[in-house]
GGDEF-domain containing protein
Amino acid sequence: MAALAVVVDARPYVLADRRASSVILPSICFTFAIALAWGFVPALVVQLAAVTVAGVRMRLPVRRTLHLAVQHAAAIGAAAGVAAMVSLRIGPQPDWDDALLTVAAAGVWILARYGLAALVAWAGSHRRRRRARKQSVEVLATAALLLLGPVVLATAQVGLAFVPLVLLALHAVHRMVRSTGESERAARVDSLTGLPNRRALQSVVGEGGRERALLLLDLDRFRAVNDALGHRVGDRLLVEVGRRLADVVPAHDLVVRLGGDEFAVLANRVDGAPEARRIAYHLAEALNRPFAMDGLPVDVTASIGIALQDAPDADCATLLREAEVAMYDAKQRGDQVAVYGPDAAHHSPDRLALLADLRRALREDAPDDGIMLFYQPQIAIATGEVVGVEALLRWQHPERGLVGPEELIRVVEPTPVMRLLTGRVLHNVVAQLAAWREAGTPLRAAVNVSARDLHAGGIADRVEELLHEYGVPADLLQLEITESALMADPHRVLNTITRLDRMGIAISLDDFGTGYSSLQHLRRLPLAEVKIDRSFVLGMSTNRGDAAIVRSVIDLAEAMGLRAVAEGVEDELTWRLLAAAGCHAAQGWFHARPMPPADLAIWLSRYRPVRPGPAPLALPTGLG
């Protein structure tokens, strides 16, 4: 039995994602029997020899081999102590008392070994794990091996020829453990790339640790690769990206595919944000080298968001959310790397609570959730007629009161909640367009959409479904995009808005003049109008520079066959100056403030078109 104990430990059982100190040694089947028959000292000597064989076989460091030996020594000592106290001795014909006492000794063995392991883990991390490690299969296999020992002992007293037959039972236990390990491993591995998946990342983060950083990588323009070369090539590209990331990441870090074109790297031993940034740029540089796909070089870039694990008990969901916020910050700013800053205004706990409240309101979709749309008329300057309205979002928070659109969008846009919000707004606006059309007063409504909506690409499908559901002509809906959305990923945005244009949806470039590098894309975009930012319009009656910018934008729009709409028209002089410059439409408090649909209907019934009078020949002296 001692010989068999040493031999079988040449093939220890290892479960997936377990530490070496948690392996199952098949030798315990025999050492437990030796302890019951001959006492603690012979069992300890045999167990130490078997542990040494297992440690060499698994190439464990000496420290971990000693750790494993101490655990099993304590377990054997506890089991032998119980057996000695009750004078347990397994004979050729054991009775029920012997069986019950053997189960008790085996239970003490399990408690001693795993209790000691848990105590060491707790002392090493100075904290309790938030979730106990799943050890059901491990304990079951251990119990099966221990209780097989007395059976072998009783059989040996009948005839030694039956003892080797126990190897078949050990093989069955080994297959059970191996099958469970393979199942666990498959559940933690991405089927396409072979990298660990989101579940594996959650498991590793759940084990705790300090000085970590989670880097979230989102491939830029990956959809264009799928559209141009097909999904098969796109999948191969994802495999190559994962392989290249794994090649440049140290062995102590974890590379994960989260899904789609998103990857993550859990970097250990990171000393602050500067080192995390250095790692991120190293990853970006590795991806900058072209990938050869069927002889065609494919360039890949990635936007990277970084979240630092400041607390050892930070959960995976929090790190992923923070990294995602940082990643979208990077996209919006046109940077490649951004670090999540908990002290930034839009990452404050107060605003995160606001985001949670909005997410709950959108998902519950209750009639009194406080989400409202106001509409501000757009007036044709030459005729004074109402040519459309812009839908403006408001939220009546149950505790904070009215939340304005600027604050709301700043909080929501970097997060997945933006898609939920855009979906709600589009639904309400299209439903309102149908109601106006049925009442005999068809109006065109403009809706703002974010960079996140355009990058996702599904907005075109959603718009098409809503127009068909409510029977609304496409020319009654207009979508407004910002220059920042265009700059973040112009190719992906161009694909989305081109499809919308082919559906008959007019596209407006909002806040024109406040972005950068937009002129190189302006001639390629299927735009219907540009909206001059209010920051220039508000000052054009008192500042020559602002007036010159407004006139230049109007001339540019005219040359390109686009409508020019001025925002922020708040006085008659500005209205007349815009008319003199040839601006097509105006929007602002001079004509009307944003109103709920019911108030807008009353305003429309009372409104009478007024044409602007002659504009002043020049700005008042002393201004500029």
About this structure: Confidence is low (pLDDT under 50) at residues 17-21, 126-133, 620-624. Residues 96-125 form the longest helix (30 residues). The radius of gyration is 35 Å. Residues 498 and 526 are 6 Å apart (CA to CA).
